[in-house]
Amino acid sequence: xxxxxxxxxxxxxxxxxxxxxxxxxxxxxxxxxxxxxxxxxxxxxxxxxxxxxxxxxxxxxxxxxxxxxxxxxxxxxxxxxxxxxxxxxxxxxxxxxxxxxxxxxxxxxxxxxxxxxxxxxxxxxxxxxxxxxxxxxxxxxxxxxxxxxxxxxxxxxxxxxxxxxxxxxxxxxxxxxxxxxxxxxxxxxxxxxxxxxxxxxxxxxxxxxxxxxxxxxxxxxxxxxxxxxxxxxxxxxxxxxxxxxxxxxxxxxxxxxxxxxxxxxxxxxxxxxxxxxxxxxxxxxxxxxxxx
Amino acid sequence: xxxxxxxxxxxxxxxxxxxxxxxxxxxxxxxxxxxxxxxxxxxxxxxxxxxxxxxxxxxxxxxxxxxxxxxxxxxxxxxxxxxxxxxxxxxxxxxxxxxxxxxxxxxxxxxxxxxxxxxxxxxxxxxxxxxxxxxxxxxxxxxxxxxxxxxxxxxxxxxxxxxxxxxxxxxxxxxxxxxxxxxxxxxxxxxxxxxxxxxxxxxxxxxxxxxxxxxxxxxxxxxxxxxxxxxxxxxxxxxxxxxxxxxxxxxxxxxxxxxxxxxxxxxxxxxxxxxxxxxxxxxxx
Lengths: 292, 285
Known about the structure:
The structure holds two protein chains of two kinds.
Chain A: E1 10-20, E2 26-37, E3 42-46, H1 53-60, E4 68-73, E5 82-83, H2 89-96, E6 99-102, H3 114-125, H4 130-143, H5 159-170, E7 177-181, H6 189-205, E8 209-214, H7 217-223, E9 226-231, E10 234-240, H8 241-249, H9 258-268, H10 283-291
Parallel strand pairs in A: 3-8, 3-9, 6-7, 7-8
Antiparallel strand pairs in A: 1-2, 1-4, 4-5, 9-10
Chain B: H1 4-57, H2 65-75, H3 80-105, H4 111-149, H5 152-158, H6 163-200, H7 206-216, H8 219-245, H9 250-282
Helix pairs in contact in B: 1-6, 2-6, 3-4, 3-6, 4-6, 4-7, 4-8, 4-9, 6-7, 6-8, 8-9
């Protein structure tokens, strides 16, 4: 397989993660996941609740250790692809400085102001003068239209503002990769659309590779270059946004494959289809109930 | 009838074996959970010491003085009034409880000796630590637990910042230093409580009370108390941090962690105190 530099930024190969349930039985939450994230693209990972997308994100950022597989990273500063699962703490921290994460709640440090939040990674990981850090903080806050709120505490911000501030902090060290965990969760449609605009804007201006985990379809179709659909721990389909749009707009009776019908139902958010049975219970709900 | 006996016997034996097996399994699980817990605390302490040593040698791993000062105020300074209140009561209680017996022996002024030694060696450090486990330990657990729930700890790690260095060390150092300081306050306040009770209620002149205290309490009593206080501070902060960082299950989990911190801290404090006292007794310290 050709592995010339920058074929991919992240390559996930045969990833499996097993969790024990309450009775000690093991449940495969991720099973044989494999796909590549290409340089500069915005890849959206989607799927219903309990499909394993949060677990996958946690594996990608080094929070969880999968039992099996490889997560190869190839950043601009690396000479050769490196497997996240074989890195020691120091190498992992080096890599962490190359990526930024926007958490679902923003995850701002509550004891610090917005500006101090953005300044923290710069203070800890760069050798520049505080006055320069101040300029960088102003710039990063301006990028997400949060400059007027720089001296506020996180508790004084709205949900959307928290995410903007979180995004400013995630981009503080000029990362190559940005991870977004449910960027539209808990936001009204207008704020959600504004955050999407920001994601598109940042990926263009900063030329970053973005990985977005979401189940909001409107948001997914606005920002994605390519999409991955997960179902019960497996990759159901990976393709361009156009392919997924076609699937969504084709009537289900004209789709030959069961998988495509399932994706069609998910994309449209229909209550009837292969995902739900006659009582309207989804496959996920049944799966979760069976697991319990 | 004769058929029923052979049928019943194996099933009763089987039931016994099953019950014994299940009890053994439960016991084993509980034991392994406790060993895991102790191992986790041990690992946290080792990691904390590693980062403290690193902070001394590596300039970039230094601990921010303002963060440390903020924690010292929160853990120590704010608990001064409650420590003064509690330890004054303890001084009064001790003096009054001892009074009838000492009167029988005709040496009422010796109350000062017992109150002095009990406060400096035992009650000063121990009761200050018990108060602090409720005051500071629980609040450390609740704060860190809320940070876990708000993904703040994850965010720290994601920015390649170590939570032990950022959160655990300032809380640990602040608790150790402030508990030692609070113990000194507690010792003095307890003796003063005893002095006023003896003077006001038992007619012991204050000068005699103080002379008796000076004669009875030696530096060794004072310092063994402070050593204990330092170790107690370490225990409270480590249990609080460990419970907080391992919170699972939302607000309910945070509540469980705060309760567990207070209960486990008090058990750990008294158990350690018992070990210390035995060792001090053996080595005549």
